Amino acid sequence: MSFKDTWVKLSHAIREIQNKNAPKISFEENHRYAYNMVLHKQGEQLYSGLKTIVAEYLDRLAEERIVPAFPRASGTAGTSALGSGAEAVERAVEGDRFLRAVKSVWDDHVGAMLKIKDILRYLDKGYTTQNGLPTTLEVGLVFFLSHIVRSTNHPIHTHLVATLLSQVQLERDGHTIQRSTVRDCVDFLLRLDNPERLGGRSVYATDIEPEFLRRSAEFYRLEAVQYLETGDAPAYLRNVERRFAEEADRTAHYLSSLTSVPLQALLVENLLTAHLQAIMRMPGTGLVAMLDADRVPDLRRMYTLFLRVPDNGGKDALRLALRESAEARGKAINDGAASSADAGMDVDEDKDKDPKGKGKAKAPSAMATALAQALRWVQDVLDLKDKFDIILDQAFGGDKQVQASINEAFQSFINANPRAPEFLSLFIDEHLKKGAKAKSDEEIEQALEKTIILFRFLSDKDKFERYYKNHLARRLLYGRSVSDDAERGMVAKLKVEMGFQFTQKLEGMFTDMRLSAESATTFRHYQNRHGAVPFELTVNVLTASYWPQPIVATSSCSFGGTLKGATEVYQKYYDSRHSGRRLTWQANLGTADVRVRFKARSHDLNVSTQALVVLLLFEDVPEDEVLSYNEIKSATDLADADLQRTLQSLACGKFRVLTKTPKGRDVGANDTFAFNDGFTSPLARIKIMQVASKVETPKEREETQEMVDEERKHQVEACIVRIMKDRKTMSHNDLISEVAHQLSSRFQPSMSLIKKRIEGLIDREYLERTNDIGVYRYLA
Amino acid sequence: MADTDFVLLESSDGYTFSVPRRIAMASQTLRSMLDEDSAFQEAKDKTVRLEYRGIILLKVIEYLQYKVQYADFASSDIREDFQDRIDPYIALELLTAADYLET
Hints:
The complex is a heterodimer.
Chain A: H1 3-18, H2 27-39, H3 43-66, H4 85-119, H5 121-128, H6 136-149, H7 156-172, H8 179-191, H9 203-230, H10 233-253, H11 257-272, H12 276-280, H13 287-292, H14 296-307, H15 313-353, H16 359-394, H17 400-416, H18 420-432, H19 441-457, H20 461-477, H21 484-498, H22 500-530, H23 549-552, H24 561-577, E1 591-597, E2 602-608, H25 609-619, E3 627-628, H26 629-636, H27 640-652, E4 658-661, E5 672-675, E6 685-687, H28 698-727, E7 729-731, H29 732-743, H30 751-763, E8 767-769, E9 775-778
Parallel strand pairs in A: 2-6
Antiparallel strand pairs in A: 1-2, 3-5, 4-5, 7-9, 8-9
Chain B: E1 6-10, E2 16-20, H1 21-24, H2 28-34, H3 41-45, E3 47-49, H4 54-69, H5 91-101
Parallel strand pairs in B: 1-3
Antiparallel strand pairs in B: 1-2
């Protein structure tokens, strides 16, 4: 048999295989033909013959099966809507039919090639590999690429790419497509490799993916714009989330998983990165609205989606917006508090000018509103904090960075309210004070725990300390504390926050109270031995340095008769127990129970010590006689402010034990007072409160500020000296930053304050300038 | 795998050998021929006609059996050398058959 005959038979067999007639063919026979041809150096002829047959076969299939299945106008389909309803369904079906045709050709071809490869086994063994040529199977793939996918005779390539893309597009538009068909086509395109000289990547990667990504980008860019126009941020985010899931699903199910990464990046880019601000600031539905309505799921969605934006861009933007929002809310609270607090003060002042004295009843109520305002401010801030805490926890997964941003916002607006330290202390006062709303220990504990959180945000901690000391002093001295445990608990909390130094004085106050209580007992024993005081006397001995300035500030007051005797007894007793200590009597802090006989009946009055002193004056005054303001003043030696307040409470308050002439709310230097014998009241025990404000008036606030500033000067100086003593020499900038750092836990010293203090210390020769510019040296 | 699945190998001089499929599959060429997925005539009929004499085919089958038997052995553990069983007179013909059948 000649080689020519052999080839005729072999080529016939190959065609039969392609026509699926393999069972009619003897493998052994044809294998032997191929074996012999290769063995007899006819490999090249066999190889080229094979190529011709494969090419013919593929061309025929393209003509017969693929071209008739071309969908109409698929090449023109862009990202624009692919029609709707019936048309879209039709397109989907057509596309599917075409893809199926291509796929069936692929299946048949690959099936045939696998058999041909087996028959021509010896060709691969003895010819192609030895000559570095593509093996039989590879020839099949290469020819499929050149004769079908990139056919030069038919526009198969255009149709294939367009159809694949339009199928995806149809699905994106909500239509149903046969995913399996697309999957199959993508699969074989992934298996087809470009020739080595074109980079050898899969045809899918070179021909489909770039176009797919381009179309996707365009589609989503448009979709983003359209959706943004609807102005519904939650809906937009839901859509984005859905799209992410869909595209992930798509790449997993019928595209290459390699496409997933660039596709997701592209989604992030077009749907999120470009529109972060637009989404968050969407009026009525954006971040602020979500926060308003506590829409945790929406916020969580926003957070998780924004996390996808590269380089933390999304999260940073979210943090910034959150911070702004929190600050805006805080500012609103501040504004509310400031305006109504001022309003309260204004009412107060107006009233003073009110000639009819009607405002008397209003006066305490204005104070009360101011107090309520302070409490509401704290409560509002706490509520806001709770709100953000919940959102942070539930929507943002407790993200530390987000938390930091929120905290910054709180810090900034809390410190933007200059009265924050006072309000905070008032809030604590309200909770630790007896007689306020009945609260359980847990509630108090909870409230205090929260205030500590706000306390952390406070930068003027020294100012807070001052107010807290004042309020604590009042609670302790007037016995208003709800419980000692709660007080100590609070101080312990502050201690944890600020350290021993911060609470040292507060604890000193507690100690004073305890020692005073103890000494009351011993004083009773003392009285048994040395003669008793004609009334019950309880003395609180306060260590001047622990207690706030205004409280221990010497207020002159001369005690009359009995009181004087009593104080002398106590003085003796005290001297007998402690030497070298000086007692100063503070009439402004104590209270006294005194029984007064009026015409109708006797009443027990609970008055301040100062009021007692005034009342005692009238003990000796005959009926129908009066004392002038100046007489009282010289007899009691009280300061004008104190005296006026005391007289006001006795003559102008709710219970008028004294009568003032002329009548009126204010006490003037020319007024005269008489004992009101005709006083009646249904109550047996009457508590006459000092007219005293709880919330500071603007003037008091100024004074407090001045005192705080003064104290800060000392602290800054002490700090500078401490540092310089340690370092000996230091540059100006280092010194300033070190001082600012060391004091930051108490307050934020300004640059100019530190500079001035350095100047002051140089003047007083604690420091000197060195020859180096901006370097100081410590002078021991 | 129970050796119930047999294939027939026919020689050019009219001998027919019934061989377990497992043994026949040790030859790459026979494996391809009998691959049921490819579905060639041979696979359908479970019969392969080979252009070799019966005596050669016998030795080929003997070798395939030997190969399967020691497939999982390390070469150092094989004590029996198949060369000892080959009759020098048929050696050349056997060699071409071996090449063709990819044993």
